[in-house]
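ARCHIVE CARD
CATEGORY: sequence design from structure
SOURCE FIELD: tokenized fold
FIELD CONTENT:
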């Protein structure tokens, strides 16, 4: 396999690699110090003197299908529960063709923003969409992006006291059987895996205790991760107290989820004691700053969770509450809302939010082979130029990505292969995708 030298970056988010890095066999083979040369001959050299090099960004929470219902009149200017109640009946119309386009669009958009690994939380399986996760696996493979596909689920509908309508839930046996099928077919536990499966009952207000407990047992048997929404709103706290007689973190413990296999989406409404408890058990949290701002949900206590021992990563969340799928933009939002929350500029830094989007997110997904630039790790990289007007006059190239508002990577590498070149995804007709996805979305008006 060819040895590629990514030479003399303008800046790189890695100590001791000022002269660049060597990539070989899909991995980072060597860090090159400033002014030094690679230790052995290379086959190819990429001049990175215009590029800021980051580890590939890792997205830890999304709902790809929601790209079909962005800025939807039924849902805008609402908070989570009424927002969901407006959208559930519209989402119930999801079909395989429009779903495939939504996945393709979300993954393409993520990739173009510098994302090299994406987790999706898919929990809608109306009749005809039984192969939803298979569709996601196919689309990710075609695009060459790494994914953690979570087999989401809902089985607590209105007739049983839950929030979603009866038409969008499945029964527990069906969910568990399909979860097992998907783990058997796709879950790759090896270093450098391109596809992993996780189990993801949707939220306390859409899933039974029994399904939560059974999912935890299944994850233990098959060594996969667990994911759910938790601590997103005060409405959820009230629901848990009324229905389960306890707060969400107590509920998590009761159903056997309080452990390092679990990462949660949002994690906002936790007390100091609950943050400490989650940290002690190494439960990961995906911070979704954009969605939390749009739905007026609140602020994730990132520093308290990290100090307690929880890995904290970054997510764009579904595109009906963001309404983008742009992870480098989410890093900027994490900085903005973090500083508003802490009232401290020093507590929330540019490099700190980039660490959430890389190392922190990788830890949430239980992966030690991605998220950093280091010898032996996967060659997943995001390269940004500072050529746009917005960057002119910027002095610290890494801080500039966050402060000046980078939105689009110039080059993206996954497992040693360039997947974005000159800011365009390789092999993807973006104009056609825009037209086809737009036409599909029109059916969800
Ligand atoms: Zn979500």
């Amino acid at each position: 396999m060819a040895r590629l030298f990514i030479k003399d970056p303008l800046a790189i988010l890695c100590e001791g690699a000022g002269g660049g890095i060597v990539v070989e066999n899909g991995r980072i083979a060597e860090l090159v110090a400033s002014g030094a040369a690679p230790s052995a001959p290379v086959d190819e050299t990429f001049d990175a003197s215009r590029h800021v090099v980051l580890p590939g960004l890792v997205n830890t929470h999304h709902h790809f299908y929601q790209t079909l219902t962005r800025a939807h009149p039924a849902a805008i200017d609402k908070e989570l529960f009424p927002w969901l109640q407006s959208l559930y009946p519209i989402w119930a119309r999801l079909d395989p063709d429009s779903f495939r386009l939504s996945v393709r669009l979300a993954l393409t958009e993520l990739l173009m923003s510098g994302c090299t690994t994406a987790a999706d939380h898919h929990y809608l399986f109306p009749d005809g969409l039984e192969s939803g996760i298979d569709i996601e696996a196919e689309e990710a493979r075609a695009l060459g992006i790494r994914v953690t596909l979570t087999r989401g689920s809902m089985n607590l509908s209105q007739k049983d006291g839950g929030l979603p309508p009866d038409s969008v839930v499945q029964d527990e046996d069906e969910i568990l059987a399909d979860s097992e099928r998907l783990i058997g077919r796709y879950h790759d536990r090896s270093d450098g895996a391109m596809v992993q499966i996780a189990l993801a009952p949707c939220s306390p207000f859409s899933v039974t205790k029994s399904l939560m407990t059974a999912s935890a047992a299944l994850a233990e048997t098959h060594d996969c991760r667990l994911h759910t929404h938790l601590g997103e709103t005060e409405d959820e706290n009230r629901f848990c107290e009324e229905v389960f007689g306890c707060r969400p973190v107590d509920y998590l413990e009761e159903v056997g989820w309080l452990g390092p296999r679990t990462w949660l989406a949002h994690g906002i409404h936790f007390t100091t004691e609950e943050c400490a408890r989650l940290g002690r058990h190494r439960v990961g949290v995906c911070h979704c700053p954009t969605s939390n701002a749009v739905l007026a949900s609140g602020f994730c206590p990132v520093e308290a969770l990290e100090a307690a021992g929880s890995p904290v990563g970054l997510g764009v969340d579904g595109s009906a509450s963001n309404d983008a799928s742009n992870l480098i933009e989410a890093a900027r939002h994490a900085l903005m809302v973090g500083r508003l929350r802490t009232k401290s500029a020093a507590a929330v830094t540019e490099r700190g939010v980039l660490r959430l989007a890389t190392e922190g997110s990788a830890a949430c997904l239980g992966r030690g082979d991605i998220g950093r630039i280091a010898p032996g790790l996967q060659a997943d990289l995001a390269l940004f130029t500072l050529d746009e007007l917005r960057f002119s006059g910027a002095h610290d190239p890494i801080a500039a990505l966050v402060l000046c508002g980078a939105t689009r990577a110039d080059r993206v590498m996954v497992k040693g292969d360039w997947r974005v070149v000159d800011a365009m995804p390789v092999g993807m007709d973006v104009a056609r995708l825009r037209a086809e996805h737009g036409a599909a979305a029109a059916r969800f008006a």
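CARD ANNOTATION: The pocket of zinc ion is lined by residues 61, 63, 121, 229, 265, 317-318 (CB under 6 Å). The chain has 14 helices and 18 strands.
SHELF: design records, drawer C
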